[in-house]
Amino acid sequence: MKSFPFLCVIALAAFGRSAAAAAETREVKIQPGEHWWAGVIAEAHRMPFTAESRFAFDFFADAAGNQGQPLLISDQGRFIWCEDPFRFEFDRGVIRLRADLRPLQLGTGGTSVATALQQASRSFFPPSGKMPDALLFTRPQFNTWIELTNNQNQVDILKYARATVQQGYPPGVLMIDAGWAKNHGNWDFDRSRFPDAPVMMRELHQLGFKVMLWMCPYFTTDGSTFKALWLDQREKGIAPWIVNAQKPNQPVLMEWWGGFGAVADLTNPYGRQWLKARLDFLVTTYGVDGFKFDGGDPEHYSAKQMLTPGRAFQADATPNEHSELYARVGLDYPLNEYRACWKMGGQALAQRLRDKNHTWTDLQKLIPGMLVQGLMGYAFTCPDMIGGGEWMSFRNLEKVDQELVVRGAQCHALMPMMQFSVAPWRVLSPENAALCVAAARLHASMADEILALAATSARTGEPIVRPLDYDHPGQGYATIVDEFLLGSSILVAPVLQKGAVQRSVQFPPGDWKGDDGALVHGPCVADVKAPLDRLPWYRKINTAAK
Fold first, then answer.
1. Closest CA relative to residue 250, chosen from 308, 187, 298
2. Residue among 417, 418, 400 at smallest CA distance from 409
3. pLDDT of 297 above 50
4. Which residues contact 259 (CB under 8 A, 6 or more apart)?
5. 135-216+268-294+316-452: what CATH class?
6. Which of 277, 341, 522, 537 registers the highest number of CB atoms within 10 A of its CB?
7. Spatial contact of 219 and 184, defined as CB atoms under 8 Å apart
8. What's residue 133's pLDDT?
9. Which CATH entry fits the domain spanning 464-545: 3.90.1150.10, 2.60.120.340, 2.60.40.1180, 3.40.350.10?
10. Across the strands, what pairs with 260?
């Protein structure tokens, strides 16, 4: 572990990273026709970067609310890596780099983005050989957030689950979102909302669901659990949270979207032991199957989020390392999900895109996000909730764009995972709600193929969802971000424009048989019909063998 002259995570941000080790700066010239992708997943829609791009980002204490990976990768086989957060800027044909903590590592692997990823993966984030729970891939996921928001309760969760099955959806993973516990840190069901949680869990399992609970690393400071732990801190000198550097018997309070709270110190063995014990309690007591791990953004561990100077048990831990340690908790629970993550490529964690608005613009960000996740080593990916994860969009039914929800379900259908939250039967006409069921059934019908691709990715680190350029380099496909390959043999071209009933599709070399039976010989560009009840997708076939 590296060493710095300051005592705590706040030091680097408070006094400037230049006060640590001597900074390393470099410039990398962008080659003619070269395209680059960077590990800022939330900004994937701006990629690929070229010699004309202007973009800057500093990874220190920032992952832009989604996954982060300290990697830049190019379609000419070049890559840039650093074991710690660094700053990069694309400006007038040059990539400017600055690393303050550990050295930059520049390398080359072949001459394509695929070979560059394979080399970078082997060197820096080799695949673990493991994958998350198979049910995440084989069946749709259902999240209770949009329907219930902060009113998570036993009666309505069971109604949602029963309706899901009654509507014809194949039961899969059910995620009970924030609000099921009385307060953060007191990880047990709130009895006023869940009078008989074991009965609820039994029925959900009988319906065919596996159940995940939302989780975060924060403590509500007026909760009974927090008070008991504080007494332990005062009497025994141990605490599971980051402490106030000036008053070590008190916690540092962090600001996050849930307000203010103490935060678990996962650099501390006691902090890790405490959190795992609470999770295991839920597994053994109620039969909980897994957890949605939220709130571990490196931004929330930064000095600007602290009300007082903070000191972690591991004094030189950066905000990004705190985020990474929170992600590692999920490795003990195969049924997991992360929205925010740092440097966990190749690991058996399900990674969801950050919340999107109920707009066509944000629908168009799903494919770029999924493509860049894969190029950064995050193969086990899930788009944001169908129709968007911003709950305010669905309070007024008159403002719900039914076409957008249907096209969102279709966009998800042939991705590694698909996730519903808003109930289509509540916000859509019966005809449009049936189209969402059809998308879910299409996903379930492809379960064996998707699962096989996930198993391959666990061994090789290759993405499940791929840009066309990954399998067909050097043919001008690098900027195509409105269609994707599922593995190497399924081409998916969702409709992402409001009112569109046809779209232009770029077909790579080979013969492609469509869901409509049409046979297309690539490479070519073709306009295909895509009424609201059609998701255009094509399977590569070997015509010589027929």
1. 308
2. 418
3. yes
4. none
5. alpha beta
6. 341
7. yes
8. 98
9. 2.60.40.1180
10. 255
Per-residue DSSP letter, 249 = T
CB 455 within 8 A of CB 429: no
Q: Which amino acid is at 498?
A: K
User: 241 has which bridge partners?
Assistant: 264
* Widest pairwise Cα distance in the chain: 77
21/4 Cα distance (integer angstroms)? 7
In this prediction, residue 15 carries a pLDDT of 27
CB 272 within 8 A of CB 329: yes
Give the C-alpha distances (Å, rounded to integers) separating 498 from 11, 364, 393, 526: 49, 11, 17, 20
pLDDT digit string (tens) for 175-195?
A: 999 999 999 999 999 999 999
Tokens read off for 413: 């259908």
pTM above 0.90, yes or no: yes
The pLDDT tens digits of the residues spanning 414-433 come to: 999 999 999 999 999 999 99
Pick the CATH number of 9-124 from 3.30.565.10, 2.60.40.1760, 3.30.420.40, 3.30.1330.60: 2.60.40.1760
